[in-house]
Amino acid sequence: MHSFEHDTNASRTVFGTGTLSRVGDELRRMGGRRALVLSTPGQRALAMRVAGVLGDACAGIFDGAAAHTPVEVTDAALERAQELAADSVVSVGGGSTTGLGKALAARTGLPHLVLPTTYAGSEVTSLLGETADGEKVTRTGPEILPEVVVYDVALTTTLPWPVTVTSAVNAMAHAVEALYAADRTAETDRIAVEGLGALARGLRSLQREPDDLGARDDLLYGAWLAGRCLGAVGMGLHHKLCHTLGGSFGLPHAATHTVVLPHAMAYNAPAAPEAMSTASTALGVDDAPAGLQALVARLGGPTDLRDLGFDLADVPRAAALATARPYPNPRPVDHDGIVELLTHATEGTTIRDGPSATTPVPAVTHPSEEQR
Ligand code: NAD
Fold first, then answer.
1. Residue nearest atom 7 of ligand 1, based on CA coordinates
2. Distance of CA 295 to CAs 181, 262, 269, Å?
3. Tens digit of pLDDT per residue, the chain (372 long)?
4. Residue 31 in contact with residue 88, Cβ under 8 Å?
5. By Cβ atoms counted within 10 A, which residue in 85, 124, 149, 324 is the most buried?
6. Measured in angstroms, how far is the CA atom of residue 354 from the centroid of ligand 1?
7. Nearest CA owner, ligand 1 atom 19
8. Alpha-carbon distance 106 to 146, whole Å?
9. Which is nearest to 330 in space by CA: 369, 279, 291, 367?
């Protein structure tokens, strides 16, 4: 079991089991005396539990967090924060709730504490995607990074198995793309390997033993590491595809990552053989793309986009959108190749084992902010 505290210049992490009891101290430590607690409607009971732990330090609850951080929801939460004279924000939930907390903190300058309950990793990044008039715009800035993250493994035990699988593979995607990122470092490589190993181990153990708290510990620990990859380096083709499918076709975030990741890895394998070899060792499989796809299938996760509501007829438009302004990627992104990739992902084509390629293509440089 992991139990530690981690500080960087900009944000503080507390990790353990039962750490919810420390949230009052952590709030005071960052200067909060009257926190607005945020959640989705489905996690209101948990928000009330957090409010109970905070006691007088809780000014009130706003339980309207929704996917893709719609600005109308942020405006309503802002109004509530002002009515209550809140001096801090506490987000309890997945990436949707954390997104609302980030949007509120960025607008008000209030300090932000996050209690994550999924493996999305948003709590350790300076990235924020907001939706206005049906369009999702992503930005980054130091004011977006939450000041404190309190990981409590016990809060993740309620995550249903299908969401556990897709959320963990969403986290794996951050680590995999970090392994071939143009701006990767030796440190991000090590964090990615450790994260992938913990996520794969956690999923396998939890499938065998659904109440295994040690497996939940591995998953949350891996998610923290993978989130740090996402926050540290630029993401590539896989994230561009998922942003396109989520933003323009309304596909669900984590499930889309789960279907697309093995196909994006197979596309990039010829240009990133070292990254694939490192990923295969970390994941405990022979061939990274094929092995990950087989692992997802064994775990009962989604393996085709059709099941998520995507239509083969939409492939050309999605490919055009995804190739219009591609993120830096080890293998050049060409329209025909992406049509083929998306067709395979839509139909759930089985990726065959094979040696990762032979002709490395030089990485594209100049990562942009949007690519994360
Ligand atoms: P989510 O936050 O939408 O949660 C999915 C559902 O699971 C929600 O209904 C939630 O209430 C429920 N849930 C969460 N934790 C639970 C638990 N422990 N037990 C039972 N139910 C629980 O999904 P997500 O995948 O965590 O986040 C997706 C969103 O986060 C997307 O909008 C995505 O763009 C964003 N995101 C942002 C970043 C970033 O760095 N900015 C990173 C990753 C994801």
1. 94
2. 24, 10, 18
3. 766 544 455 799 999 999 999 999 999 999 999 999 999 999 999 999 999 999 999 999 999 999 989 999 999 999 999 999 999 999 999 999 999 999 999 999 999 999 999 999 999 999 999 988 877 788 999 899 999 999 999 999 999 999 999 999 999 999 999 999 999 999 999 999 999 999 999 999 999 999 999 999 999 999 999 999 999 999 999 999 999 999 889 999 999 999 999 999 999 999 999 999 999 999 999 999 999 999 999 999 999 999 999 999 999 999 999 999 888 999 999 999 999 999 999 999 999 876 443 333 333 333 343 444
4. yes
5. 124
6. 34
7. 159
8. 10
9. 367
Does residue 99 have its Cβ closer than 6 Å to ligand 1?
yes
Residue 197: CB atoms within 10 A of its CB come to 18
Name the residue at shortest CA distance from atom 33 of ligand 1: 95
For 82-112, b/e burial (b = at least 16 CB within 10 A) is: eebebbbbbbbbbbbbbbbbbbbbbebebbb
Cross-strand bridge partners of residue 91: 38, 114
Strands 88-93 and 12-16, sheet pairing: unpaired
Can you tell me the distance from the alpha carbon of 293 to that of 360, in angstroms, rounded to the nearest whole number?
Answer: 23
Strands 4-7, 12-16: parallel, antiparallel or unpaired by DSSP? antiparallel
The residue written with tokens 């990923």 in the block is 279
Could you tell me the two tokens for 198? 């913990």
